[in-house]
Amino acid sequence: MIPWRLWGVHPLRYRSSLVRAGEGAAEAWTRDQILACAAENAGLENPAISAFVAARARQLYLRDLMVDSLIRSVEYPSTAEIHARMELEPQLYLIERHYHQIILADSAMADSVLTRLEWGQNFAVTAVNISLGQKAGVGGDLGFVTGAEMLAQGLPLEIALLDGLSTVIRSNLGWHIFRVSETRALQDSLRGVQSAGQIMYETRIQAAIDSVLSAAGEELSVEVEL
Fold first, then answer.
1. Which helix (H) or strand (E) holds 202?
2. Number of domains in the chain
3. What is the pLDDT of residue 7?
4. How far is CA 48 from CA 51, 55, 120, 127, 224, in A?
5. Which residue would you say has higher pLDDT here, 220 or 45?
6. Are residues 26 and 69 in the same domain?
7. pLDDT at 5
8. Binning pLDDT at 50, 70 and 90, where does residue 225 land?
9. Is residue 144 within a helix (H) or strand (E), and if so which, with residue range?
10. Spatial separation of the C-alpha atoms in residues 200 and 76, rounded to whole Å
């Protein structure tokens, strides 16, 4: 059992907070149910939409059950497996790159800025002046990061293995331009092992999900009605 001090809260207070949360949830459910009944009595309900919402809620519930079951069935990679993977792909796991980043809200501006950077405009000054990133104030400096850690952030392989100035990369945050100014051998081996292990673990989970999708897809036909 984990000592309550590690949780930062006494167990009796923790149980009390759960009770209060449960009471609040019950109160919210009752209020929402009354409003739902009132809407039904007022003739506001669209039966087709209600049926779709009910089917979608069940779909998400069952999906989460399946994904949770798959996650619990996947073993975290052993230390030996992680070390072998790191040695197999040293450019991703054993090399740290000094990354700098500029984030822009407009693709046309990003293309224009990239052209100016290719002509020699100072990256750090440009980041300070126009970047939307949290590190804009320090010239977009992200510090030393492994390629694997960049992959874990959802960035493409070309950024993980970047040398010099990148192309414009789009994400849900905007349009990114990266620069790698220098490289060095991995300084924090524990961080490298944790990063590699997490990537391997997530890859295994995704493979398990893909396997279920592939197997079920051959047996099931799904009709989508919107």
1. helix 189-219
2. 3
3. 36
4. 5, 11, 60, 51, 14
5. 45
6. no
7. 38
8. low
9. strand 141-146
10. 8
Report helix, strand or coil for 154: coil
Task: Go through 68-101 and write b for each residue having 16 or more CB atoms within 10 A of its CB, e for each that does not.
Answer: eebeeebeebeeeebbebbeeeeebbbbbbebbb
Looking at the structure, tell me whether residues 121 and 178 fall in a common domain.
yes
What tokens were used for 83?
């070390």
Q: Identify whether the C-beta of residue 65 lies closer than 8 Å to the C-beta of residue 172.
A: no
In the block, which residue shows the tokens 């739902």?
Answer: 36
Give alpha helix (H) positions in 45-183.
47-73, 79-88, 90-93, 107-118, 123-130, 147-152, 157-160
pLDDT of the residue at 4: 30
User: What's the CATH number where 128 sits?
Assistant: 3.10.50.40
Q: Would you state the structure tokens that stand for residue 85, as one six-digit string?
A: 């993977």
Residue 37's domain spans which residues? 1-45
Residue (of 88, 100, 97) closest to 126 by Cα position: 100
Q: Are 178 and 101 in contact (CB under 8 A)?
A: yes
d(CA 114, CA 150): 20
Residue 89 per-residue DSSP state: S
SS3 105: coil
Q: Write the pLDDT tens digit of every residue in 61-75.
A: 999 999 999 999 999
Residue 224 lies in a domain: no
Q: What is the pLDDT of residue 69?
A: 95
